Amino acid sequence: MNELHGAGVALVTPFNSDESVDFEALGQLIDLQINEGMDYLVSLGTTGEVATLTKEERKRIWDFTVKRVNGRLPLVAGIGGNNTAEIVEQIKAFDPTGFCAILSVSPYYNKPTQEGIYQHYRTIAQVSPLPIILYNVPGRTGSNMTAQTTLRLANDFSNIVAIKEASGNFAQFSEILRDKPADFLLISGDDPVTLPMMALGAAGIISVVGNAFPKRVAKLAKLCAEGNYHEARAIHNDLLQITDLCFVEGNPAGVKYILKKLGIGHDTLRLPLVGISEKTQVAIAEEMHKLN
């Protein structure tokens, strides 16, 4: 899965002020990522507010994204949730044309055991027409997928090819990297730890802040892949404060506000998410001025 090396971006879903999908802004966003050096795109990951989209909207967004990308970059589709049977039906109905993999978040809210997580992904792997990227994000799901469960899945299913890891647990990252199959990829799921994770051996990042700063994030991943950590550290340090501000009032509220400031769509979100406060808006504007 060479397509999954380097910098990927979890695309936001732009909304008009009436909360309908803003396809014009989505097209602008896609072109920005491609023109500024991103290596691949993730359509409708959790950053894309997929939980608030209808089945029809998801299909329209995927169809639009495939056509707009037009083979210029690899595409990953986000299909995950906490109802295994429903995810199976979504995957069976999904048209994989134009996509190289499926990113599937570990089941949230239910707080399954490790065996439950294993069986969830086992069931998905048996029906998926595309390779699967596991996604461990305990801060959102309420449960951690351990290194042992990740390694068990990686060894048992050849079409489970990578994990997007957002646990923040470096002991867990190290165990995965030490014991994984040679072709299984560890991908950073947190922008601030991209550099140290890639220094350990991660393949890259699926970024949120890359929506707004694709050139910097792509360059950071490229420098890390080349072992040029001196130059990579400068970009890492430049992005630390703006990344923190992107998440301080929830994702993707912060990065949508930055995109609005850059002239790409509105900062509209669907409830239960709301826009960032005036205080955070001011802080973001000040940091953007410094970066530019």
Provide a compact summary of the structure:
The chain is 47% helix and 13% strand. The chain is α/β, with parallel strands linked by helices and 292 residues long.
Structure description:
- With 292 residues, the chain is α/β, with parallel strands linked by helices.
- It has a single domain, classed as TIM Barrel (Alpha-Beta Barrel), CATH 3.20.20.
- The protein is 47% helix and 13% strand.
- The chain is built from 12 helices and 8 strands.
Topology:
Layout: E1 6-10, H1 23-35, E2 40-43, H2 55-69, E3 75-78, H3 84-93, E4 101-105, H4 114-127, E5 132-136, H5 138-141, H6 147-156, E6 160-165, H7 170-179, E7 185-188, H8 194-200, E8 204-207, H9 214-225, H10 229-247, H11 253-261, H12 278-291
Parallel strand pairs: 1-2, 1-8, 2-3, 3-4, 4-5, 5-6, 6-7, 7-8
Catalytic activity: L-aspartate 4-semialdehyde + pyruvate = (2S,4S)-4-hydroxy-2,3,4,5-tetrahydrodipicolinate + H2O + H(+)
GO cellular component, one term: cytosol
GO molecular function, one term: 4-hydroxy-tetrahydrodipicolinate synthase activity
Q: How is the largest sheet built, in terms of strand order?
A: 1-2-3-4-5-6-7-8
Percent of residues in beta strands: 5-15%
Q: What is the C-level CATH assignment?
A: Alpha Beta
Mean pLDDT across every amino acid position: 97
- Helicity level, as a percent range? 40-55%
**Which value, in Å, is the CA radius of gyration?**
18 Å
> How many helix segments?
12
Low-confidence stretches: none
The general outline is globular
Protein name: 4-hydroxy-tetrahydrodipicolinate synthase
Organism: Sphingobacterium detergens
Function: Catalyzes the condensation of (S)-aspartate-beta-semialdehyde [(S)-ASA] and pyruvate to 4-hydroxy-tetrahydrodipicolinate (HTPA).
Catalytic activity: L-aspartate 4-semialdehyde + pyruvate = (2S,4S)-4-hydroxy-2,3,4,5-tetrahydrodipicolinate + H2O + H(+)
